[in-house]
Amino acid sequence: MPANDGIVAFFGATGGSILACLALALKAGYTCSALSRSSDKLQTLLLEHDVSQSIIDTHLTIVQGDIRDTQAVARVLNPQSKSDTTNTTRTLQLIISGIGRPPIFYPNPLNPSFDDPTVCQDAMATILAALRSLPPSSPKPVVAALSTTGISSRARDVPMLMIPFYRWVLAAPHKDKLEMEALLKAEVAKPAQERAIKDFVVLRPSFLTDGARLGTDKIRLGEEVGETAAPAVGYTISRKDLGGWMFDELLDGQGKDKYAGKMVTITY
Asked: Which one of 4, 124, 252, 264 has the largest count of C-beta atoms within 10 Å of its C-beta?
């Protein structure tokens, strides 16, 4: 997608992977919008990722609000462009969502809790509702949603040694991710004229780390489509590499068409 061809909307933009993708998109000249509970925090994080204030001011619209606020989400999906001086209407092309909450290991690190166990499914439901509130003539975007390995019912996509950790510690957020995926599948199962989206790409990364970006050529991919699954099995991938892959493939590349309707496992 050329840098001037449309708007890319980001949800979960202060998180490592989505933040990395947003920073690359802004530096490449894409017109972006993002939801954040704190616009100051998001701008500070972008500056730390070497995105200049002038680029932020020109190419990014930040809507301050909560992911369960349909009106706030709708403003992210239909922002007023700050960089276009030709009165050209820019349309929403791609939504990248990485909403989630980390586990709370205090007071018992052996029994972590989650303060918002339905945030992923609620976020996607709100995004879909906000899309339906846009003018009927609005083009339907592709949604790229960040999920996880360890939840496939078709094939094992995590190493055997990690299965106990995934099933014990991460059971609650994994259930939430499955519900989020189910919402997307149900949406594209509707007749084309009734859908809120054109299609989806679900990203299932291995365990995320804060490591350096090694490059897209170091990443292995697998796919799950319907009843067919051929996942890539690995231990980890860094948030920076996941964000870099999203930028390289979904924005600069043809990935939003190539991987449409697929669950893509991403690992080293």
From this structure: 124
